[in-house]
Every structure is written in structure tokens, then in C-alpha cells.
Task: structure prediction
Amino acid sequence: MIRSTGREMTLSFPPFTRAVIWLLGINTAIFLGLTAFGSFSVISWVYEHLGLVPARTVLHLEVWQIITYSFIHVGFWHWFGNMLGIWMFGSTFESSWRMRRFLELYFTGVVGAAITTILLSFAHILTSPTIPTVGASGGVFAILMAYGMVFGENEIFLFPFPFLIKAKYFVLILIVVTVAFAISGGGSTAYLAHLGGLFFGYLYVKFGAARKTSRQASPSEWYYGLKNSYYRWKRRRAARKFEVYMRKHDRDVKFDDLGNYIPPDDRDKKNGGSKSGWVN
Result:
């Protein structure tokens, strides 16, 4: 891949970062194992129970499929294209964002693509709940969307096309082509999963990612923030119930907005009972 920033253009290969190596290694080992030793019955079992079959995922509660399907590939080019995308674009994010946030982005795309496929399959939109989906494309397309958003001004040269193109325009073309193929049916390729990966990649960067220039909450931090907010709400709710209960027994107790008890002396100060203090 050729990258160009400003007037400088360099031909470089991305590094093999830690998480990228693990993803490439696991996907490659499974692909080679199924290719070399997978009989028809074994491959059929893998597709049915480890691929994403919405009917089994939802009705038989085989929820692990929303992750495991991404490690299964059909044919050399299916495997090679996804591994190339993980390496060429994923290594940039891992180098910039560190391993944890890169994996959050990747698996947000994987799970998001699975959710999109499940919802649309049960609505019978371009697919069916009994059709299996496999491949890492959801995660790869999330990476591509994120690359276009974060590194959109970078120019890339993708062999064999003889021209440079900004990353954001490359992603835009990718979206248009994916939508067109999804609407037309797209043969055996799961373009709905591609669209899910693009959409959830956008959501991750927009609302949950830590950019290079500003720090925002990651999905795990969002989870704990929501969890703490829920407990604060429960505490305030319990405090209000206790106030009502005590009032019925002719006792006046007060709690602040955080659910903390306010002693009578502090209450008097707050209501102006104290003559000392600052006056503005």
C-alpha cells in the first residue's frame, strides 16, 4: 500500500502488530484446518453450529455464533481478502489506539454485522433465518469505515488501480458498491453483514472511540458509567420513598439529589437559617 500525506508519498507495508497477528493466526489456522482435514460432515456441522445461522442463534440460543462465525471462511479469496484488510488497515489502528481499543472496534463490527443480519433475516429482507453467514467481513468493514473517518485525508494507492485516492472517498465508494450489491442480491456474499459492519464501525468512532486528538469513553467505560447511573437512580428513588414513609409517621427527613441524608442543622443552613456566610 502506498500512503501519501501532503507532498510526501511513501511505499510501505504495515507492521504486524500484536492483535493483528493473533487475528491473522486464528483465522488462518481454522481456514487451513478446515481446508486440509474438514470432511463434508465436519464442515456442515461447523457451518450450522459455529457459523451465524439466525434461526439457531435466536431460537436455539446458540449465542456464541455472533462471534464464532467471523473465524470461518469459504475459499482462498474470501480468507485472503479479509486477512489483507485486517493487516493493512487494522495495524494502523492498533498502532494509534493500542490493542484494546482496536479489538473493541473490530468486534463491535463483528457483533454489529451479526445483529444486522439476524434482524433483517427474521424480517425476510434479502435473506432468511436458515441461511448461514461466515467470515470476518463485518469486523473488516468496521475497520474500513473507521479508517475513512479518522484517517480520511490520507491518500492510499491500492494495487492494481493506477491512482491515489483519499481514504474517505474510498470508503464512500465502498459503501455505495456494498449497498448496490446488497439490493441486487449479491450472490452468495453477505453484503448485509458488510453494511452492518460499516454502520457499527461508524457508531463506534462517533460515540465510543478514543481519537488521537481527544479522549472519549470506550464502550466498556460507557457500560460502567451507565451502571453507576442506574445505581444512583435507585439510591435517589429509595431516598424519596423513605421521605414519604417518614412523613406518614410525622417525621420530616430530607435527602439531597444524590440520595444522601441531610441533617436538620445543614438543612437550616441551606434554607437560610444561618446568618453567616457569603452574600452575593
The chain has two domains: 2-216, 224-270.
